[in-house]
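Figure 2 data, in text form.
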Amino acid sequence: MESTSLHDRPASLRYDRLLSCSLPCDGIDFDRFLAAAEGQARVYWENCDEQIAFAGAGAAVELMAWGPDRFAKILASARKLFDGAYVDEEDNPLTSPRLFGGFSFRHDFMLDNTWSIYTPAFFALPHYQLLRNGGATCLTINTQIPHNESPATVIPDLRAALEQKIAQLKAGAPSIGAGERNVPLSIDYPMRYASWEGMINEATARIRAGALRKVVLARAAELRFREHVKPLPILRLLAAQYGNCYRFLFEPRPRYAFYGASPELLASVQGRRLETMALAGSAARAENDEADSRFGDGLLGSVKERHEHDIVVEKMCQRLSPMTESLEVQLPRLLKLSNIQHINTPIHATLAQPCGILPLIETLHPTPALGGDPRPDALRLIRDLEPIPRGWYGAPVGWIDSNCDGQFAVAIRSAVAQESRAWVYAGAGIVADSVPQREWEETELKFRPMLDAHGVLQQ
């Protein structure tokens, strides 16, 4: 039987112990790394505010979970994976193995054609992991070995594999993949305005009757392309236009990708330190500074928009309070993106005890910014009124490190692609005085980043 080196063993083979080995690799371009991994599982995350970029190729481990306790199941699986791990240079944060993935919006999400490969919880540990923090970059290889095998006997082979991979990446053409683009053939909105108007009127009627205070309702656009959808050109365009967003790609199977550029941090946890934000209330941008300031001032002064935003702040603090020792709610400010601006209230907290990122994600998701208030009533209304399943839209997407800390964004301004089709989603917060036409126009603003990135010309 032909032997196979450890770093080539498929993810389907399960061993007892995770082994991670790393080498510095400054100068490797992330776009080239992802382009070289076409045809494999690929992941990507970038948060420019912290200068952190993370990419992965292949899958050493996959974790999946179903049911209402999916967060706890993933946490238990992650702890089991990391607890016995051997991490070369474990004191270097660049070498920490990271799981990347996310959750569906609802735990009872049923697989459909659009989301055919995405389970309610799905994470991958990349076989090759490239991480940049500030000016330093490191390439890590993750694999699993039998518990009774000594890591010292395996490390030389893994370092040799890393050296070979780094040499291949540095020898690649700098412009690899740069000429790729997506050519859209058609765009279709399954929900017409008349249906949207009826949906919003039903929601506002229930809110005025006292059934709930707020609900977030969404619609979708379906895009068709001449060839299979290429996510890397889309990510490049999003980086150019939305550099202050959390940009992500989760492609667990070739040509089945979920990606986007979200302005909304759900939670970032490191030890006992928690950061999150309340992001709700929207207005357009203007071409000149005077008009843009007028739009922003109008947003901050809008009774309707501030009411929608204040519900989010109030409920997030209520949910976090039992888990925190101290909670700091900063003053609201404007978060300005290239085509839209939002009211943003940053929230910082000290946790009562370190518990990792996932208990916080479970507590917060969905915030009233994507679900509504009260949460159970809003979720029932969303299920009753929205004709298209959300899948992973509006849900947590992000990464978990070996301490089970991590960072997750809310998967808005996102799309899911399957071969030559892609679906783009946009939603709006509905309160008692919402007007269907204005909410329709707000979703059009929120569609624009992803439609532009897919090459769809706006009228």
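Caption note: Residues 49 and 448 are 23 Å apart (CA to CA).
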